[in-house]
Design brief:
It is a single chain. The chain has 164 residues and is an alpha+beta fold. The chain contains six helices and five strands; from the N terminus they run αβαββααβαβα. It has helices at residues 10-18, 29-39, 77-83, 87-93, 114-134, 153-157; strands at 20-23, 51-57, 63-71, 97-105, 140-142. Strands 1-2-3-4-5 form a five-stranded mixed β-sheet, sandwiched between helices. Helix 5 links the parallel strand 4 (97-105) and strand 5. The termini are far apart.
Length: 164
């Protein structure tokens, strides 16, 4: 009997059950940039301002992926209209908008549902981590999906709203 599509096998489920998402230490950020340069279609990035780097690891500490979050875009018409804030509110609250600028699962390391579980785990801790480091929470997370490369299925399946 064949397995249903996207249903992890027992070994794959074991990876999902034991995986961890953690903040990368300062000495690990260079490796993150190197992996992004090698494997992400946009390459690495040079973020300015507030930022957080996360690593996704298996039970043995082997890296499965990386995520980078940075300060949100200063102005985005679709986002700003969706929020409905005034110019003064935008000025005061923009720091609470964070952008998921990179999400990379390493080639040959992915298993079914790894992306959705990773996103769920990191979003569950992002605001607390951000507040501990920068002194304010995260209220909105945004990202951009290049429709020439991706459909955005992960984000829509995770309840995100497409704005533009």
């Amino acid at each position: 009997m064949s397995q249903a599509p996207n249903k992890p096998s027992r070994p794959q489920q074991a990876v999902l059950d034991s995986m961890m998402v953690r903040l990368l230490e300062a000495d690990e950020v260079e490796r993150c940039h190197q992996l992004l340069e090698e494997e992400h279609y946009l390459g690495s990035l040079r973020p300015v301002g507030e930022r957080m780097y996360y690593g996704v690891t298996d039970a043995e500490g082997e890296w499965l992926g990386v995520l980078v979050f940075c300060a949100g875009a200063r102005r985005l018409r679709a986002r700003d209209e969706w929020i409905g804030w005034s110019e003064e509110q935008r000025r005061r609250r923009l720091s609470m908008v964070v952008s998921n600028t990179r999400f990379l699962l390493l080639a040959g390391k992915s298993v079914p549902n790894l992306a959705s579980k990773t996103l769920s785990l990191v979003l569950a801790r992002l605001s607390a981590d951000w507040e501990e480091r920068y002194g304010h929470p995260v209220l909105i997370v945004e990202t951009f999906v290049d429709p020439e490369h991706f459909c955005g299925t992960l984000y829509s399946a995770s309840g995100w709203s497409e704005l533009g």
